[in-house]
Amino acid sequence: MKTTLIKQASIVNEGSIKVADVLIKNNRIEKIAENIQVANAFEINAENLFLFPGMIDDQVHFREPGLTHKADIRTESRAAVAGGITSFMEMPNTIPNTLTHNLLEEKYAIASKNSIANYSFFMGINQDNLEEALRTDNEKVCGITDDGLYFDNEHGLMANHPEYLEKLFSRSESLIALHCEDDSIIADNLSKYQNLYGENIPVNCHPKIRSHAACLSATKRVVELAKKHKNRLHLYHITTKEEALLFDSDTPIHKKHITAEACIPHLWFDDSDYDQLGSLIKWNPSVKSAEDKSGLLNALLENKLDIIATDHAPHLLSEKEGTYLKSMSGGPMVQHAFVVLLELYHQKQISLEKIAEKTAHHVAEIYRMPDRGYLREGYYADMVLVDLNKPWKVSQENIFYKCRWSPLMNQTFNSQIQKTFVNGYLVYDQNKIIDNTTGMRLTFAKNRL
User: Fold this and answer.
1) DSSP for residue 396
2) pLDDT at position 156, please?
3) Would 177 disulfide with which of 46, 145, 239, 387, CB 3.0-4.6 Å?
């Protein structure tokens, strides 16, 4: 690969911003200094641009295998790098569900040929594969999760089965990542609204059906069990300010046993948006109130919530249409997540330094990822170069998602991703994918506890 020299970038890293040069060689950052001179390097003028560590997204659904009419690893990894995401961790609710190590390795094989971003895949777990899940290799697999899976034929989430969680928590040394909502509360709420509206439940009832109480009840239950067993537990997509108060803000990130995240849909939208966007913002857990949205952001700033993810979960637009019960939950987000956060920066709600911390530094710490997540000499050159003052509008013409739509359609953002580097390779450059390399399989420390 070429030696690359980025000149005079404003580097956002480890709580500070400084102007410096960055030399990239052999996949890694070789040097960061005020003035670097190298003969025959590919030189990039980054004056007035901001250089961030690439976002590491720990929660995406790229739909391959089995659901590739919606998305696939090739298309969505390209959308990800266009959005400044250089590494992703993908969920097991493909078809078939990723519940064996053979199926897991098949996904890795697909990514090794088709993913332009770095990649890892979660091992799925349900009631039938405990022994298989416990054999997960911590150094080669990001963790174990139930996200998107059914525990059995009748019930959804593992958070509703404390007796099974006891078995898992008492034996696992892997990171366990869970989706927490109380199935019984959701079922009671749904029955109530079906009695009121029949098949014509308004979409704005979604946060009343998948309610505050449903989230808080399940999250409390799982956190108490994890504390008992001292597990490495990570909780996906916290959506209420009350849940956020359950988490510790004092322990340094590398020492936390229990961590949690907020996702972009819940930081950008609130329940006032259902009237205009309807099922386009139907996610599970639901987008809730403006007060919750504000509470989540405050919890991130106070370090009660540790990271930001996308919960990128694309469907065809036709699959989002129809009645409330028929419209599918989830939507595409990887291409626009980083610029959403930069828009919050322009609104003076979050600093650039905190964005780097929550999208890269802390993700690398939680998952124990060697040599990633920071702009440091010797680390992999996963980076994104941003122009903070280049307005643009989301349109179908500039969307990279296979599904070809976004709940952010026609939204104008003040910041634009200029270039994305994965392992030192320039893979995205001003609206163009440079498709001559593939990402790496992510690795992790063996000890996750």
Assistant:
1) G
2) 80
3) 145
Q: In terms of residues, how long is the chain?
A: 449
Q: Could you tell me how far CA 221 lies from the centroid of its own chain?
A: 24
The pLDDT score that the predictor gives to residue 59 is: 98
* CA distance linking residue 36 with residue 21, whole number of Å: 6
**How far is the C-alpha of 271 from the C-alpha of 5, rounded, in Å?**
46
Residue 259 pairs in a beta bridge with 234
Whether residue 217 sits in one domain with residue 119:
yes
Of 190, 174, 372, residue with least CA distance to 286: 190
* Residue 243 counted as domain residue: yes
Number of structural domains the chain divides into: 2
Please provide residue 428's backbone torsions phi and psi, each rounded to the nearest 5 degrees: -145, 130
Which amino acid is located at 107 in the chain? K
CA distance readout (Å), 163 to 146, 158, 170: 15, 10, 11
pLDDT along the chain (449 residues), means of 10: 94 98 98 95 97 98 98 98 98 97 98 98 96 97 95 79 95 96 96 97 98 98 94 97 96 96 98 98 98 98 98 98 96 98 98 98 98 98 98 97 98 98 98 96 94
Q: What are phi and psi of 152, to 5 degrees?
A: -150, -170
Asked if 284 and 179 sit in the same domain, the reply is yes
The candidate with the shortest Cα–Cα distance to 133, out of 161, 107, 108, 97, is 97
CA distance 399 to 2: 29
Sign of CA pseudo-dihedral 10, 13, 18, 21: negative
Which phi and psi angles does 250 have, rounded to 5°? -95, -30
Supply the range of the domain harboring residue 17.
Answer: 4-51+380-391+410-433
pTM: 0.98
Q: Is 424 contained in some domain?
A: yes
For residues 16 and 97, membership in a common domain is answered with no
CATH number, domain of 427, equals 2.30.40.10
Task: Mark out the alpha helices in 115-211 (DSSP H runs).
Answer: 130-134, 162-171, 183-197, 206-209
pLDDT of residue 153: 61
Residue 403 belongs to a domain: no
> Phi/psi at 308 (nearest 5 deg)?
-120, 135
C-alpha of 160 from chain center? 24
pLDDT of 154: 62
The answer on 385 and 343 residing in a single domain is: no
